[in-house]
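can u do me a favor
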């Protein structure tokens, strides 16, 4: 019952952030078309996006929520790019200043680039950078991220250790099992594989 309430509460907050974000986008478009100040809705959109990303990541939600957050950000960035391009073309045709629209478009693309880069380097889990982990020594990873939640490292012996990620009790096909970030390493301690999974036999 408690997990159901928590999940419903999480969905409520996410829908609230989504609504505020969409309203901000509409106000930005309306303000640009009517040549009004869009400072407030832009600030609102940025703050809402940051709060949503922080909310999704801090409360350790399952992958369905993470995917939802990614799609939301992709939608917001896409809308921003489309609006910027339309305003640039409109400004060119009417010989109006397009400086603010160009700056906004460049900013949107920079933020999107950073988001894509983070996603590409953290494909298994947002907590751990796969680019840094793969090929690294298991002891180096332990110093960086802390002691392992499953398994122990034995020198000169291959093995597998893991960090706890989350327990899947989400609203969409939950398995109610703990999920871990597993790392396999060889005799020299070099990590050659990372993956997310539940404990063996679970």
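np, heres the sequence
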């Amino acid at each position: 019952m408690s997990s159901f309430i928590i999940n419903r509460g999480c969905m409520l907050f996410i829908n609230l952030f989504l609504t505020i974000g969409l309203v901000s986008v509409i106000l930005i478009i309306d303000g640009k078309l009517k040549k009004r100040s869009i400072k407030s809705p832009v600030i609102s959109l940025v703050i809402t996006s940051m709060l949503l990303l922080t909310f999704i990541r801090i409360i350790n939600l399952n992958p369905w929520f993470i995917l939802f957050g990614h799609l939301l950000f992709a939608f917001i960035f896409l809308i921003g790019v489309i609006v910027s391009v339309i305003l640039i073309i409109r400004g060119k045709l009417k010989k109006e200043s397009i400086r603010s629209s160009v700056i906004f478009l460049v900013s949107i693309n920079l933020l999107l680039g950073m988001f894509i880069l983070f996603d590409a380097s953290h494909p298994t889990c947002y907590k751990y950078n796969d680019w840094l982990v793969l090929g690294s020594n298991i002891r180096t990873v332990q110093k960086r991220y802390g002691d392992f939640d499953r398994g122990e490292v034995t020198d000169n012996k291959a093995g597998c250790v893991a960090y706890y990620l989350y327990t899947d009790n989400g609203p969409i096909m939950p398995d109610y099992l703990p999920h871990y970030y597993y790392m396999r390493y060889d005799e020299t301690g070099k990590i050659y594989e990372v993956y997310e999974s539940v404990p063996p036999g679970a």
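The mean pLDDT is 77. hope that helps!!
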